[in-house]
């Protein structure tokens, strides 16, 4: 058991939230210690060398141009040179007995926002004119902004705006289930509207798709490196079992190996269930526990399953695509996405398939999921039937995201809600965003602002949103 020097702030958790807070606070001159239980950083956005597959795997994460805080953090740390940006999103319909698979490319053209994608949208064969008409009418609802209240489920909005069955299947569902990771009745219209306002309407730049081209823990290692350069003390493999507020006013945290760390200020940058676990180590009567514990029972998880396939030959030249009429939402061609990061010219092709809101897959075996995925993939890329599958893996993340269920915002705490110099960050706190890396980075920066404020420092760390472009300058609130 050892004692460590006392920093100004102790941060628990080196996911996007904890890293963002560490960069902000150490950049502003605070002495920071960052404690992380895993050997690598990135939190849920992690990668690891899979021993049986002999490959570094991750669950592909994407960002959008409107994720201004994440983009800023990546610019500051140099991680941005490992993001590939795409203007075009390809939607693929599966082949049938009589028709080959069909693609619809949605991309910005020369029309000013909000009409920047209008030409490609009007040409897209995946939707009929009636579907497009309903979608356009629906999008008008989010032209000026999106609801400030979060009580209405998106399923009610779809019904109210009389969306057609195919518009739902080919447009609303791939985007909403892909970004909010849950079913329509468990997503609030506020966050669904935010996705469409920020990434579809406000500007073409806001809708650009960014894909990290490095394995995710390497990607976030650049951010950790920046924090360390600024003086942050990073302790990996340090799992905290309990927290105490000492009579001296210092916070004490005790790691599973018995090591103790102290600081006047403690920031928990953890998922909500880990926050609950540590709060439960405080006395029942402590104010932070009484204030935060009742909120936590309102949070629920949603799972994501990824399927990793290595073929002996290329089966597609697309770098990524949204797949329609199947349980699989996205295909990422990791061979092409990572091509500048790997020294050897690849022989075959590595694809990753993402199944969002994969509640039913949690109950299936990996073999069942793999068999299903191969059959489905062949409907989009027929070469799959001839290609040899060299190896494969299935990664189930049962606690991938928290669900932005209708009405949840009133239970999402602000960073200073616990009091007593205990602060909270993490995607689940009141970041203004759903469960995303941008939400996590925002939460870390908001917590850093609150901590700085408590010492009389009025520094601000949040990056402003992208400005509206074109005609959206007239519409946006
Ligand atoms: C499969 C999957 C796909 C996703 N896809 C996307 C996507 O495409 N785009 C997107 O924006 N978001 C995506 N997300 C969501 C995104 O990963 C999260 O919203 C974000 O990473 C959360 O960051 P965080 O810092 O709030 O929490 P976390 O990343 O969970 O970080 C918390 C950290 O705390 C550490 N920790 C926990 N307990 C302790 C303890 N007792 N002591 C010390 N350390 C502890 C953990 O090890 C972890 O490193 C996805 C998530 C998953 C799982």
Q: Could you explain how this protein is built, in words?
A:
- The chain has 477 residues and is an alpha/beta fold.
- It has helices spanning 16-27, 68-77, 118-123, 129-140, 154-160, 165-180, 189-201, 216-229, 272-279, 287-296, 334-337, 359-362, 366-380, 437-454, 472-475; strands at 9-12, 32-35, 47-50, 55-58, 63-64, 83-86, 89-93, 102-106, 209-212, 233-235, 240-245, 251-255, 260-263, 265-269, 301-311, 320-323, 330-333, 349-355, 389-402, 422-425.
- Strands 8-7-16-17-18-15-19 form a 7-stranded mixed β-sheet, with helices on both faces. The protein has a 5-stranded parallel β-sheet with strand order 10-2-1-14-20, covered by helices on one side.
- A hairpin with a 4-residue loop joins strand 3 and strand 4.
- Helix 1 packs parallel to helix 14 (437-454), helix 2 (68-77) crosses helix 8 (216-229) and helix 9 (272-279) packs antiparallel against helix 10 (287-296).
Topology:
Blueprint: E1 9-12, H1 16-27, E2 32-35, E3 47-50, E4 55-58, E5 63-64, H2 68-77, E6 83-86, E7 89-93, E8 102-106, H3 118-123, H4 129-140, H5 154-160, H6 165-180, H7 189-201, E9 209-212, H8 216-229, E10 233-235, E11 240-245, E12 251-255, E13 260-263, E14 265-269, H9 272-279, H10 287-296, E15 301-311, E16 320-323, E17 330-333, H11 334-337, E18 349-355, H12 359-362, H13 366-380, E19 389-402, E20 422-425, H14 437-454, H15 472-475
Parallel strand pairs: 1-2, 1-14, 2-10, 7-16, 14-20
Antiparallel strand pairs: 3-4, 5-9, 6-9, 7-8, 11-12, 12-13, 15-18, 15-19, 16-17, 17-18
The chain binds flavin-adenine dinucleotide (FAD).
